[in-house]
C-alpha cells in the first residue's frame, strides 16, 4: 500500500468551503519532545471530537486498543465490525477502545468532526472516538510518537497505514502492535490475557 498525492482542481460549493473551514486536525509539533519522558499512556492529553481536552489517566486500570481509523479505507468495514464486537464482548471486563481518525493515508478520512460523528453514529460505534490527528511526520501528536517509540513496527517504526492497532496493558504500557491487515478478532486471545492479569 502506498501513499498517493492527488493534484487537481475542483469546484467547491459554498457549503463545502464552509465545511472545509470548520474542519480541523488536532496537530502538535514533533519538535516538542516531552513525550520521550513519558512512562505510561496516562501522561498524555488528547482532544475529543468536540475539541475538549481528555486526559488519558481516565483509563487507568483498563486494557486499551489504540487505533488510527479512516472511514473510506478498504480495511474500514472489517476493522469497525471487529472492534465493535470486541467492545461488546469485553467492555464490561475492562476493555476500552480509543479511535483516532487520520487522513494521512490515501486521504481516506477527508471529513471533519461533523462527518466523523455521523459515520460513528451510522456504524453504531460505542467506543471512544477522538479528534482527527496526524500520526506521522512533523505534526504527529505526542501520543503517537510515544507509541511508535515503545513498540517497533515491521521494517520501520512509522505508522504504515490506517488501522494500525496498539494494545495497552492495565499499567498503561504498550505491549503489542498489530498491522492494518490484522483483524482485531485475530488478537482476541491477547486481549483476554491482558484482561485477566
From TrEMBL:
Domain of life: Eukaryota
MF (Gene Ontology): peroxidase activity
Keywords of the record: Oxidoreductase, Peroxidase, Selenocysteine
Domain Thioredoxin, first and last residues per copy: 35-196
Gene3D superfamilies: Glutaredoxin
Active site: 73
GO biological process: response to oxidative stress
PANTHER family in UniProt: GLUTATHIONE PEROXIDASE (PTHR11592), PHOSPHOLIPID HYDROPEROXIDE GLUTATHIONE PEROXIDASE (PTHR11592:SF134)
Family stated for the protein in its record: Belongs to the glutathione peroxidase family.
Protein name in the entry: Glutathione peroxidase
Provenance organism: Aceria tosichella (wheat curl mite)
Source taxonomy: Eukaryota, Metazoa, Ecdysozoa, Arthropoda, Chelicerata
Amino acid at each position: 500500500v502506498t501513499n498517493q498525492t492527488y493534484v487537481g482542481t475542483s469546484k467547491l460549493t459554498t457549503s463545502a468551503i464552509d465545511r472545509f473551514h470548520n474542519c480541523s486536525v488536532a496537530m502538535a509539533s514533533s519538535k516538542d519532545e516531552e513525550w520521550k519522558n513519558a512512562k505510561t499512556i496516562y501522561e498524555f492529553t488528547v482532544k475529543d471530537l468536540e475539541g475538549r481536552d481528555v486526559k488519558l489517566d481516565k483509563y487507568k486500570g483498563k486494557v486499551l486498543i489504540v487505533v488510527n481509523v479512516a472511514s473510506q479505507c478498504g480495511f474500514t468495514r472489517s476493522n469497525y465490525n471487529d472492534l465493535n464486537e470486541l467492545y461488546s464482548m469485553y467492555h464490561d471486563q475492562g476493555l476500552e477502545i480509543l479511535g483516532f481518525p487520520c487522513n494521512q493515508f490515501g486521504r481516506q478520512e477527508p471529513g471533519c468532526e461533523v462527518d466523523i460523528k455521523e459515520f460513528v453514529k451510522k456504524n453504531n460505534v460505542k467506543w471512544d472516538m477522538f479528534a482527527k490527528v496526524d500520526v506521522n511526520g512533523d505534526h504527529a501528536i505526542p501520543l503517537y510518537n510515544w507509541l511508535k517509540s515503545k513498540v517497533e513496527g515491521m521494517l520501520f517504526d512509522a505508522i504504515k497505514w490506517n488501522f494500525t492497532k496498539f494494545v495497552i496493558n492495565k499499567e498503561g504500557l504498550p505491549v503489542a502492535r498489530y498491522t492494518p491487515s490484522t483483524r482485531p478478532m485475530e488478537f482476541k486471545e491477547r486481549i483476554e490475557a491482558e484482561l485477566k492479569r
